[in-house]
Amino acid sequence: MITAIVLVALGILALVAVPVVLALGIVLFAVKLVFSLLFLPFRLVGWLIGGLAAIFFGVLSLVVLGVVLVPVLPLLILGGIAYLLYRLLRPARIATA
User: Fold this and answer.
1) Cα 96–chain centre separation
2) Which of 22, 36, 37, 64 lies 20 to 30 A from 83 at CA?
3) Residue 33's pLDDT is what?
């Protein structure tokens, strides 16, 4: 059984620990806020560079796709026409149940 002395000791410990933990939390919050404000310009520059890089590589990939696919486009059109002619000229299937 927990005796009264142990309960009193735990109560005093809690009365001492709670303000210390609360003060530590407030100090850590303030330090985090200061460092967040201190490093905010670097984060904004990083986001800007990342966004510009994403736009650049997006445009670059579209250009590469255009350079690769434009020469192949006539072959794709001829293949589509050949497929449509094949479907048109083949005899119709009769469905059997």
Assistant:
1) 52
2) 64
3) 96
pTM: 0.48
Cα Rg of the chain, angstroms: 36
Could you tell me the two tokens for 62?
A: 């579209």
Q: Which helix (H) or strand (E) holds 61?
A: helix 4-89
Token couple for 44: 């904004």
CA-to-CA separations, 6 to 3, 13, 55, 58, 93, in angstroms, rounded: 5, 10, 66, 67, 91
pLDDT digits (tens, 9 = 90+) for 48-60: 999 999 999 999 9
Residue 96 falls in which region: left (phi positive, over 0), alpha (psi -120 to 50) or beta: beta
Q: What is the DSSP letter of 2?
A: -
As a dihedral over the C-alpha atoms of residue 67, residue 69, residue 71, residue 76, rounded to 10 degrees, the angle is -170
Neighbour-count burial for 31-55, b at 16+ CB within 10 Å, e otherwise? eeeeeeeeeeeeeeeeeeeeeeeee
